[in-house]
Structure of Membrane-anchored protein:
Amino acid sequence: MSSGIGKRLATRKLIAASDRDRSCFEGSDIEHLIVHLENGHSSATLQNAFPLIAVAFSDDGEADLQERLALLGSLATVPAVPLQRLDPVNKSDSFALLRALAEGGVGRLAQYSASITSELAILRRERETLLENYRALEDAFQARNWEPVSEIFSHDPYADPKDDGIGQLLATAFVEQLLPVSSLAVAGFALHLHSVPRVSGELVVALSYLESGEGVAEWTVPYAQLVPNWNFFSLPRACGGAARTLRLRISATGPETVGVSLGYPIAGERYSARSELPHPDLDLRPLAFKVFTGLPGVKPAYALNMIAPSNLLEGQFIVDYRLPVDTLSQIADVSVTPIVPEFQTVRFLEHEHAIVCHPLPSGISAGAVSRAVEPGTISFSASAVIDHPQGQPAAVGFLLAPANSNARSEVAELARKGAARPSAFFSGWREVTSNQVVNINIQLEQPVRGPMDLMILSRAVTDSVDFSWLKVSGFRLVKQSTEAADVR
């Protein structure tokens, strides 16, 4: 036994004896381990003592110990102490056994306990250091005005004249919407409302993981806290852990219905809004929503109309990827038009990671990026704008075709029939102006089985195409993966 442990044990009395037997222990090598229970006290007191066993050499000592040990029960922190009668003739043998009991086994336990306590203290210091570094990192982001939240996906609101509105559906059932991005680093989302009742009522929004059904958070928001515009729902911390699919579920209460906006029609049913009850407005229409990401585990920055969750609720992965510069730079002009322009209609802007596709008065201007879409892709999105203040509006669209197909032939088929071949996917046409950036999305019903070519299309929507420099950027794709190791 080390001297340190011996000193610690020397301050702890581990063997109880009667004061009547004090003389038997004086001068022995276990004298420092004995606590003598004095007679004449109506209550038991212990100081620096934790008796494991009581020993007696005489009848009077045994009787006195029985009386004194009975009083130890009032301490409530000392378990029952066994009483052992020793032979006064063989005291040396008894003392050796007692010392082995007190200093041998107990010494090892004390050493083990001291080691655990020391390691626990180290872990506590390391945890405090980690938390301090974590706070310093957050402070550094705030000091440099690095906002840890950015918009990565958006479905713009679109009001179809034939819409009946889904307000009544929200009051009687619910509407679900899958988010076509990975859950990793998602810090919140926004819902667009085109109208908000002034009477009492609540909008109930729940976010959960599709694969496990585990809830993430729930928002119960009175109508008085909502605005007829974008309303931001934040998480306390951006999502971490494995990449999973997030699912929104929305319902409402109150005598009047809230006007939750829908987005433009999309090609895939998987990422369309759905309900347990049929409704004509939900025919390949998503909700109008935005998704924001930040640093996993970090509290998102404040945004206008931000709503904190009311409650925090306690396979297959999805992977986000972007088109690299080397891939975009290989874009080829596959336009189908009778006009021979005097300028380059399709080109790559290296410093902006963007594609320019200038429409012509007739036909379709198109650029093809070979094998840009990876197998397993289920979603594609990009933003578009007319990059000139005097630019005339144009229409933009995206076409996905098998990698072994003829890109110009695919565009010609679309120009001739107004629809893509069965093996291809067309986003539809969206009008773009110089005043506002629009987001174009393709959600597929099933993941693509093989690599596909991406075609960026533009055509005129008025008699003039002056300065219609259509710029497309922010290419973002999402694919499914069955292995966690593929998540990045």
